[in-house]
Amino acid sequence: MIKLARYLKPYIPIIIICAGLLFIQANMDLALPDYMSKIVNNGVQQSGVESVIPNVLRDSTMKKLELFMGEDTANMFSASYHKVDSSSADFSTLKEEYPSIEKEALWFINEDADLTDIELQVAKAFTAVSSIEKMAENPEAMKAMGGSMNMSQMPENMDFFTMIEMMPVSQRGQIKSGVMEKISTMDNMLLEQAAVQLVKAEYEAIGLDMGELQLGYIKKTGIVMVLVTLASIMANVLAGLFAARTAAGVSRKLRRDIFTKVESFNGEEFDRFSTASLITRTTNDITQIQLVIYMSIRMVLYAPIMGVGGVIRALGKAPSMAWLIGLAVVVLLLLIIAIFSTAVPKFKMIQKLVDRLNLVTREQLSGLMVVRAFNRQDFEEKRFDKANMDLTNINLFVTRVMAIMMPVMMLIMNVLTVAIVWVGSHKVSASLMQVGDMMAFLQYAMQIVMSFLMLSMMFIFIPRASVSGVRIAEVIDTEPSIKDPENPQKPPEQASGRIEFRNVSFKYPGGEEHALCDISFTAEPGQTTAIIGSTGSGKSSIVNLIPRFYDASEGEVLVDGIDVKDLTQKDLRAQIGYVPQKVNLFTGTIKSNIKYGNENATDQQLLDAAETAQAMEFIKDKPEGLDTPISQGGQNVSGGQKQRISIARALVKEAPVYIFDDSFSALDFKTDAALRRALKEKSGGSTLIIVAQRVSTIMKAEQILVMDEGKIVGKGTHQQLMAECEEYKEIVYSQLSMEELS
Predict the structure, then answer these.
(1) CA end-to-end span of the chain
(2) Phi-psi region of 49 (alpha: psi -120 to 50; beta: other; left: phi over 0)
(3) Rounded Cα distance, 167 and 251, in Å
(4) Distance between CA 210 and CA 364 in Å, rounded?
(5) Sign of the dihedral through C-alpha 32, 33, 36, 41
(6) Count of CB atoms situated within 10 Å of the CB of 556
(7) Calpha distance 309→204 (Å, rounded)
(8) CA nearest neighbour of 731 among 691, 694, 676, 690
(9) Strand pairing class (703-708; 106-109)
(10) Residue in 740, 646, 644 with CA at minimum distance from that of residue 695
(11) For the chain, which has fewer Cβ within 10 Å, the N-terminal or C-terminal residue?
(12) Are 503 and 520 in contact (CB under 8 A)?
């Protein structure tokens, strides 16, 4: 996977944008439980009262609160408000909304006021005022609070707070200290909740419509939640789009590079990688990479933000319940480690078994006629079933392990939910937590667990993708055994096509013995050089060295006096018209297959090439002529017709060298003879190299090479070889009678 990281380099800006979008989405998602908590706490339980700092309060309440504040706090508090009474300019405007202003002056908070630092002191003052008011209803409490002061001397209807103001400073301080000492023992959260209820009572005393205030707060917070949700959805959609484009772009580049690399492969590389394996690497393996890139961008970036953010916000709501999340995370990690260690080793096996299944399928489909001819359908079915079942069993094992994970995860989440509700409900009943905070904590806990679940899924997908990445990197990093020279020579403008082998020996990669030993000959322009010999004698090995499908292990192969290793492969192969031993036609038409040899060929050149290759005799019989469709692999034409189309494809190139590797084997003797005559007439100036099994095909060649066990055991014309070469005579007598020879 690390080797393929360079493919992400062009997409770094997009990935950064995705990270930003996912950060926005995560923050939006994390904000929703907090807004929900505010609706429950402030909107429902507190009737829309958001803070212990009132927006408006009566003049009498202001004086009462100042009695239980420190001097600095009282000054800061009163300075944050402005007083409105009948003499104020905005009195007439405010009295419609606040009718009580006609009876008593009101204090309104300033727009730029920031009393966050003294919220706790204000809450204590409100609670102290409430405590004093309750005590005022109890004569014994009043007497006790009055201390040494003679309460009988006080006017009967005098307000208790007025009485406190009239007390000596020492006695007033004693009362204040006693009340505040009692309040200081209360929990801060409980204190703030009580103070909010007192602010609510103050609003009611002023005459505010609490129902309207509550509904307005819920609507405002609800609208914000909708906007936050829309922002999260938009960020999610855009991040998904960019992640998909990145993953698809990387997979497209990988497929292109693999195909380009495979096009540069030679025989040695194709011996190393099977066709079935290359197909799997180009399809299934790259799909795994594409999937993991998409999921990594979407989950690996998103999950940590959600997890860390969820922990921070959950601790802010209820630090004392953090152990519940910690316990759930530990259990999840143990589960992930167990699944990871069990499933990951199987992923390497899966990709190898996919290769095996593709190989068996490809062999059976390409060799279907042979299978039917020998009635081996049952055997092939069993072979396919074995490969299929091996892959199925491994996949089932991995799927079952993964299937266990989800219900266990859900069990952990449900147990965690019950535990949070159980512990949280006790804290709510003890006034240590608000209901909304418990609900928000529950949602944050679920978000944290889901983050770990996302990461656990990545722990499953990344190892499988890493296996695919290694397989893809093996192909891309494979250096072709045959390379163009750093300073190549240019072929002559008027190439003659002279081929020369000088003491050439060749060994196939991994082979122990040489396939060719000390081969030396010259194929002159305008002449036909034929190569004949028993099966495995090295005939095809010789012709494969000319276009550099393989390189000679020793010696030199020269074209027009230039070593083929000193030419670029493109320049070298541009001079050669090649017809392989195994004919391969492409899906299209006869015309497109012949034109494959020269894309700039005119229709007349195509017809001339087809005429020379003796292909026109069956092309004329086709209603569409040259436009006759060719199915995959040329399945809709006979072997002889495929060979003639392939020969026409080489001839339309009009090259100085033509190589025919046993390309006349499917032709009847009449067509064979006519084709050789036409070749001599149409390409008389070119060098013809013909590999053949039939003596009749090569009898009139100017030079015949007789191969045996990788060596040239005879060289000359037919007559010379009949007189001097025993191996050649054996081949001739095995095919022709004395009458045919005479």
Answers:
(1) 70
(2) beta
(3) 86
(4) 82
(5) negative
(6) 16
(7) 39
(8) 694
(9) unpaired
(10) 740
(11) C
(12) yes
Structure tokens at 36: 């929900």
Give Cα 216 distance to the centre of its chain: 46
**223: number of Cβ within 10 Å:** 10
Residue type present at position 509 = P
Look at the block and give the residue holding tokens 């589960």.
335
Contacts of 386 (CB under 8 A, 6+ apart): none
pLDDT in tens, 265-281: 877 777 778 777 788 88
pLDDT over 50 (residue 147) = no
For 11-63, the pLDDT digits (tens) are: 999 999 999 999 999 999 999 998 888 888 888 887 888 888 888 898 888 88
Sheet holding 703-708, edge to edge: 576-579, 657-661, 687-691, 528-533, 703-708, 711-716
Q: How far apart are CA 600 and CA 572, in angstroms?
A: 19
Tell me if 715 sits within 8 A of 529, measured CB to CB: no
- Angle of helix 188-206 relative to helix 210-263, nearest 10 degrees? 130
Half-sphere exposure of 65 (CA within 13 A, CB side): 29
pLDDT tens digits for 375-395? 888 888 898 899 999 989 988
Place of tokens 């300075």: 79
- Round to whole Å and give the CA distance between 556 and 345: 49
| Total residue length of the chain | 742
Asked if 523 and 660 touch (Cβ cutoff 8 Å), the reply is no
The one-letter code for the residue type at 353 is: L
Q: Which of 167, 172, 170, 140 is nearest to 154 (CA)?
A: 167
d(CA 201, CA 203): 5
The DSSP H or E segment spanning 622 is none
Per-residue pLDDT band for 371 (boundaries 50, 70, 90) equals confident
pTM of the model: 0.71
pLDDT confidence of residue 71: 81
The CA distances from residue 240 to 200, 488, 617, in Å, are 46, 49, 59
What are the residue ranges spanned by the domains of the chain?
51-209
Do residues 655 and 685 make contact, with C-beta atoms less than 8 angstroms apart?
no
Q: Is 630 strand, coil or helix?
A: strand
d(CA 640, CA 663): 9
Q: Which residues contact 189 (CB under 8 A, 6 or more apart)?
A: 431, 432, 433, 434
| pLDDT at residue 150, rounded to an integer | 47
Q: Which residue has the higher pLDDT, 705 or 211?
A: 705
594's tokens: 């012949």
Angstrom distance (rounded) from CA 293 to CA 150? 85
Cα–Cα dist 227/233, whole Å: 10
Q: How far apart are CA 6 and CA 508, in angstroms?
A: 35
When the pLDDT of each residue in the chain is averaged and rounded to a whole number, the result is 84
pLDDT at 184: 73
What is the tally of helices (H) and strands (E) in the chain?
29, 15
Distance CA 723, CA 728 (A): 9
Question: CA distances (Å), 118 to each of 76, 329, 508, in order?
Answer: 9, 38, 89
Measure the CA–CA gap between 498 and 193, rounded to whole angstroms. Answer: 102
Burial class, 737, CB count within 10 angstroms (exposed 0-12 / middle 13-18 / buried 19+): exposed
Distance CA 43, CA 248 (A): 47
In this prediction, residue 739 has a pLDDT band, given cuts at 50, 70 and 90, of low
CB atoms within 10 A of CB 509: 13
